[in-house]
Amino acid sequence: MNHEVTAPKIIAVHLNYRSRAQQRGRIPAHPSYFFKPASSLSTSGATIERPADTELLAFEGEIALIIGSDVRRVSPDEGWAAVSGITAANDFGLYDFRAADKGSNVRSKGGDGYTPLGPDVIPADQVDPSAVRVRAWVNDELAQDDTTAGLLFPFGQLVADLSQMMTLHAGDIILTGTPAGSSVVQPGDEVVVEVDAPSAPGAPSSGRLMTRVVEGEVPFSDAGEKPKATDAQREAAWGSREAAGLTEPDAFELTADLREKLDATAVATLSAALRKRGHVDIFIEGVHASRPGTKMYGLARTLRFVPFRPDLFASHGGGYNAQKRAFDSVEPGEVLVMEARGERATGTVGDVLALRAQVRGAAGIVTDGGIRDFSEVASFDIPTFSQGAHPSVLGRRHVPWETDVTIGCGGAAVQPGDLIVGDDDGVIVIPPQLAREVIEAAYDQERKDAWTAEQVANGERIEGLFPMNGEWKERYQTWLSQQ
């Protein structure tokens, strides 16, 4: 590896191209950043090591801004004016370390040679910042091709934003994000990145930045957390499940270990863990447990009602309708979730059907409508959640329509197989692909919260403890290591 280049700071943008944001399924409202070490810099023709026992080294062709003068608290126009030049960059990342980094990117993006630059610099005053192109090839096959017309946050805005909190010094490097097309490379592959301005006079170019991938031979020691590749990281690194060679994910299973952790974890804590992962519309609004102290969890089965209409009720409401089929087929451990469109002025389940679900071993019943025979249903062992009691029969407002489809219950989308969890605070929906991760994170948070509460009960002050400062975090980790 060649480390002939250096910089005071290297700052990289997480998501900045619309094509990449759409691929990732989220479009940020504002730019966000991470740092890379100067030791990650290298030049064209250098090699990059994929460490031993790892598999997910991914390239990211990018445009690098080179700051030409010290700036602090500048406008976007002034920010672009402070850029002396642009060049090609490759923001390599090792997805095997993503989970261990917990968002910092220190190890996943900070390896030696993980930020090659060059070979030439295009003077900034020679280009229109909205008309710059970046392309990347893997073994001479074009993998990325996009222009700055697709940026979410223009170059000048990035400089202005960063300068609000820190002085940007001459020589600082800002990596401006990668477009769609980033994927995994293997030892022996050659990756080339080029930045140019084809519509500018003379079509200036950075030249071709070439990096060759080699296989590392030194295994990781036990000094820290070791790299680990998961299917979620494989999908992110390759760009899609198909590219990663993954089949559809296996159905989520509520193991004994996860059930034990759910028993000790509140819905409120689970919802906070979901929010951190971008899932905020997961509450089945307006429903409450039929009796206080209820705890419920299980995988969803779904039933959908449509608004009442005499002809539709005549064709779908009588006989062995969808409602009866749902209660007759719910499996042990499943939660039957019903879409009643938030219509509380009618019953959607009564004592006979609730008893049938209980006998079948169902884990619970959730409806965003009402419950008939409310007191009797509440006395059953099976947990029930609803908008409350109503004495009407089914045909007043609803027609039982279909089962085992995606529904909207209390404003939340629910699919068969989703994890449904309820307690006195309400009911939430957890996508199965996130369930294990969310349960583990929430359970860890419950332990931390319980320990914090114990300290408060022992007379400790809230300041510095909630949330924990460095000293309290160290004390908590010491306690945790002794458990």
Task: Provide the fold topology.
Elements: E1 10-13, H1 18-24, E2 33-36, E3 41-43, E4 47-50, E5 57-58, E6 61-67, H2 76-81, E7 83-90, E8 93-94, H3 98-101, H4 106-109, E9 115-117, E10 122-123, E11 133-138, E12 141-147, H5 155-163, E13 173-175, E14 190-196, E15 209-215, H6 231-238, H7 256-263, H8 267-276, E16 283-284, E17 288-289, E18 296-307, H9 310-316, H10 322-329, E19 334-339, H11 351-359, E20 364-367, H12 374-379, E21 384-386, E22 398-403, E23 407-409, E24 412-414, E25 419-423, E26 426-430, H13 432-457, H14 470-481
Parallel strand pairs: 1-13, 3-9, 4-15, 18-19, 19-20, 20-21
Antiparallel strand pairs: 1-2, 5-8, 6-7, 6-13, 7-10, 11-12, 11-14, 14-15, 16-26, 17-21, 18-22, 18-25, 23-24, 25-26
Q: What does this protein look like?
A:
- With 483 residues, this protein is α+β, with helices and mostly antiparallel strands.
- The chain is 26% helix and 25% strand.
- It contains 14 helices and 26 strands.
- Strands 16, 17, 18, 19, 20, 21, 22, 25 and 26 form a 9-stranded mixed beta sheet that branches.
- Helix 8 crosses helix 13.
- The chain is elongated and about 80 Å long.
Task: Give a quick set of tags describing it.
single chain, 483 residues, alpha+beta, 9-stranded mixed β-sheet, 6-stranded mixed β-sheet, 25% strand, elongated
Structural class comes to alpha+beta
Q: Low-confidence runs (pLDDT<50, min 5 residues)? A: none
Q: Please describe the biggest sheet, giving its number of strands, its sense, and whether it closes into a barrel.
A: 9 strands, mixed
Task: Specify Rg, calculated over alpha carbons.
Answer: 28 Å
Per the principal axes of the C-alpha atoms, what is the gross shape? elongated
User: Roughly what fraction of the amino acids lie in strands?
Assistant: 15-25%
Could you tell me the number of beta strands? 26
